Structure formats: C-alpha cells, structure tokens
TrEMBL record:
Keywords: Cytoplasm, Nucleus, Protein transport, Transport. The keyword Transport applies. Residues 17-246 form the Nmd3 N-terminal domain. GO terms for molecular function: ribosomal large subunit binding. This is 60S ribosomal export protein NMD3. It holds the Pfam family NMD3. GO terms for biological process: protein transport; ribosomal large subunit export from nucleus. It is found in: Cytoplasm; Nucleus. Residues 313-406 form the 60S ribosomal export protein NMD3 OB-fold domain.
C-alpha cells in the first residue's frame, strides 16, 4: 500500500505521524503508510475467491446468466469474463491494473493480480495490490446436454420418398456430406422410406430444409408443438417438425406423363425415361431423343408415377440394331439430347432364347448397343400396368419394350472398382435386405454418368488393388484417378512406420 501524492518541493518539510510519530512528508491523513494499513483496507468487500463454471465437452466458460463463451487461458476474453464476476463489488474503488498470475493449467485455479485505488481520510488516495483466486467448477452447457441426451431436440427434418429404390437418397447423402450439413445434427435416424435429422435449434433445421429445396425436387410442410410456456417472461418452447417429400421418381424409372404436361414440354411422347434426378427431373423420350426437365412445382401440379421398379426390369439381348440418322421432330418440339443416339433395335429376352419371340423398339442407347450386348429393359407387351394416363393412351403408341441401360458383369465391376464413398453415421431402423444391391446400382450410376458425380466426393480406395487384364475389360465405364480424392485419416500425420516406432 502506498500513497499517491504530489512531488515534494525543496521548501517542504517533514511532519510527524499522528499515530506513531515517525517523520513523514505531509499528507491529508497525517499518517504513515504502516498506520494507514492498520486503519483502512480498501479491498474490503471484494471477494478473494470466486467460482467460474466451465464446460469440459465444448471447453467454454459460463458468462451469466446463460451465455457460454470460448476463452483461451490468460486471454483478454477470459480476463474480461473474470472481471465481470467481481464488477459489482468494485463500484467504490478504481481499477488501475489487472493481470494473470501463472498457475498450473490443470490446477482448476485462475489467479488474477489486481491494482486498485481509493480515496480515504480527508482525501488521501491509497493504492493496493491484491490477488483474487477463481475456482473452476465443471458444468455441462445446454448444447452439450442436448448432444449427450440425443433425444433432446428442438427441431426434426423428416425426409421421405415413396419409392422402392433409394438412388435419390444415396445421391442426397453424398451432397450432404460434401457440404458438411450433417455436422449440426444431434442424431440421424434412417427409417422406412426416409431419414430423420434431429437438431438442437430451429435455425439449423431451416438451413437443412433450404438446402434440400435447392438440391432435389420436393415439397415441404411445417408444424410445431408447444412444449412449455413461461407466463412470467411470456416465452414459448416449441418442437418444430419439417416434413420434406421428395418426388417419387428415381433414375432409370419409366414414367407416363399426362397429355397436358407432355404437350407443355415440347410435344414429347408420354412414355419417357428418367435419366437423372438433381434439382429437377431429367426426362428423355426414347422415340425422339427429346429431353425435358421437370422441377418440383411442375411435378406437384401434374404428378406422374413410375411404371416399374428396378426388380421388374428384364434382361434382353440385342439381335439387330440400326442407327436412325435423320429424325425430324414435329412442330413445337423441344431440345434433343446430344449425348445419346437414336436407334431401332430387335431384342430377345435371355429367358426366352429357346423361342423365336423377338421385340422391336426404339431406344436412346444407340451409341452403346451392339449386336450381342445385354441390356436391361421393361416389357410393356407382357405387363399389366394400372396407370391413369397409360390406360388412356392409344395402344399403338405404347412401345412393346423400353430399354433402360446397358448391362455389364457386376462381379467384374466390383472387383476392379478402386474407389469408395463416405457414409453418414446414422441409426438404422427397419432396413431392407435389398439395400446392398441398390447401393451397388448407385455406384454403377456414378461410373456411367459424369454429370452425376460432379457433385460427389469420390475417394481412392487404397485397400483395393485392381487387377488389370485385356480379357477382363468388357467396356464398362470407369472413374479415372483424376476424379478421386485422397482420404485423410489420423494415421497420415505420423505414417504407419512412425506409429510403430513410437509404440516400441
């Protein structure tokens, strides 16, 4: 403790302390520092030990009443937070300086050295230095409580698609992983016909809803349920539910459009094939190569369903093919595909090779098919389909067979596939045994469609070394090494050999 006084002049003399008689320079209290210290303690009323709450999960400190802030040890943010804890008791003194004293990082103690001033006894200004100890107590914050509980959620996004195949969901999963939208979710639960995303705040759920509306054709519906209501502060606690329904059409589905919709899309045929589902449904007319895109709003105004599921596709063998060079489109026709070639083919079912039954059809796969190739298609001639628009069509305009995709040997493709995809960690409930086959279908679609894999992160699979041979190549499409990413892991930091050396 010391005085804050003006510098003494040459003419100034000393006086005696009124208590102990020691000669001292004149001051308003007429007392020496030792005697003043026995009479006055200017740090009185300021707590010397204070409690600070700390969340070990997210490493944040509680700033009363409910704010949790990130602060490093001995940082300006932590200094401000500690000073706020004792601010109310320092209204009668003036803070001159504050700083941290070193303590062990794991001691659960933060020591702060404070310098304060106060006017006492007839205007004398005293300055004192003392230490305040802050004791760190562990307390889990609300956000970490929700994460640990897993069921304590404020909003859920229910994504549904009423289809047998899950190709759209697999594509959507890769988009979510690429944009890291799954990181805010408390829990991800996969159920029949969809996935549920649970969030701690409505804002995170709304962000997922906005992403889905920009990524896949869908429609949404919002509802909320009142959990509690505080009548004193007039605050409401709701649980929100966002229901997202994706259009029930997947890649490689055969659909029948309404006459009105087909006409608005450029007078294309009613029977079309879905070649891709992104933010819109990409359709192609197998008779004319006309292409069209149907967005979510257009679909829900003029809905159409898939005429077949992948299990109903049959395998055909190409008996004869003839490329159609000059195809003239009618009046008002829309765009034609430049990536496909129109052809007339004669095909025969592989299950009917002992008969002479053959089928004639047009296809958009003329650039891929040769005589003897296997191709998957849907047999309209021998199927009983109950569809509103197909039943009203002229039977002469309904094709006997619609070819979907060229067929390759799946076992060979799996053997030489040297890449992989990431998957979201989620709870699986009521899973179908057909999921593995559907996932392999999605991987093959990525190999065949360059545009589809532009939005997907593909990683090189170091565990698989493909065996190359000339006789093993059946012309199946593949993904080049240029399109693959290296997957990062913790072992990459030290390397496998370094890890072994460290454990010796």
């Amino acid at each position: 403790m010391e005085y804050m006084q003006a510098p003494a002049t040459s003419s100034q003399g000393n006086i005696l302390c009124c208590t102990c008689g020691v000669p001292i320079p004149p001051n308003p209290a007429n007392m020496c520092v030792a005697c003043l210290r026995t009479q006055v303690d200017i740090s009185e009323g300021i707590p010397k030990q204070v409690t600070v709450h700390f969340c070990k999960q997210c490493e944040r400190y509680l700033q009363p009443p409910t704010t949790w802030v990130q602060c490093a040890l001995e940082s300006r943010e932590l200094l401000a937070l500690c000073l706020k804890k004792i601010k109310s008791s320092m209204t009668k003194v003036r803070l001159i300086d504050a700083g941290f004293l070193w303590t062990e990082p794991h001691s659960k103690r933060i020591k702060m050295k404070l310098t304060i001033q106060k006017e006492v006894m007839n205007g004398a200004i005293l300055q004192q230095v003392f230490v305040v100890e802050f004791v760190i107590q562990s307390q889990m914050c609300d956000d970490c409580h929700r994460v640990e509980a897993k069921d304590f959620w404020k909003a859920v996004v229910q994504v549904r698609q009423k289809t047998v195949h899950k190709k759209t969901f697999y594509y959507l999963e890769q988009l979510i992983l690429k944009h890291k939208l799954h990181q805010n979710a408390l829990n991800i639960k996969e159920i029949h016909e969809g996935i549920d995303f649970y969030y701690a705040s409505k804002q995170h759920a709304q962000k997922m809803v906005d992403f889905l509306q920009c990524t896949v054709p869908c429609r949404s519906k919002t509802s909320q349920r009142l959990i509690s209501h505080d009548i004193h502060s007039n605050t409401y606690n709701y649980k929100s539910t966002f229901s997202m329904e994706i259009v029930p059409v997947c890649k490689d589905n055969v659909v029948c459009l309404s006459p009105r919709l087909a006409q608005s899309l450029g007078n294309m045929g009613q029977v079309c094939v879905c070649v891709r589902v992104t933010s819109t449904i990409h359709l192609i007319d197998p008779n004319t190569l006309q292409i069209a895109e149907v967005d979510g709003n257009t679909y829900w105004r003029n809905p159409f369903n898939s005429l077949c599921n992948p299990r109903q596709l049959e395998e055909f063998i190409v008996m004869d093919t003839d490329i159609i060079r000059d195809q003239k489109l009618g009046a008002g026709a829309g765009l034609r595909s430049n990536k496909h070639t129109l052809a007339e083919v004669w095909v025969q079912k592989t299950s009917e090779m002992d008969t002479s039954q053959q089928y004639h059809c047009r296809t958009f796969l003329g650039h891929l098919l040769n005589i003897g190739d296997l191709v998957q298609g849907f047999d309209f001639a021998n199927s009983n389909i109950n569809d509103e628009y197909l039943n009203k069509m002229n039977p002469h305009h309904v094709p006997d067979v619609v070819l979907i995709k060229k067929s390759y040997d799946r076992s060979r493709r799996v053997k030489r596939r040297n890449w992989k995809l990431q998957e979201m960690s989620r709870d699986r409930d009521g899973m179908d045994t057909d999921d593995e086959r559907q996932y392999q279908d999605f991987l093959e679609d990525l190999e065949e469609d360059e545009n589809l894999r532009k939005n997907v992160n593909i990683y090189r699979d170091a565990s698989k070394i493909p065996v190359e041979s000339d006789t093993d190549d059946d012309g199946a499409p593949r993904i080049s090494l240029m399109e693959m990413l290296e997957e990062l892991s913790l072992s990459d930091a030290t390397g496998g050999e370094g890890a072994d050396m460290m454990t010796d």
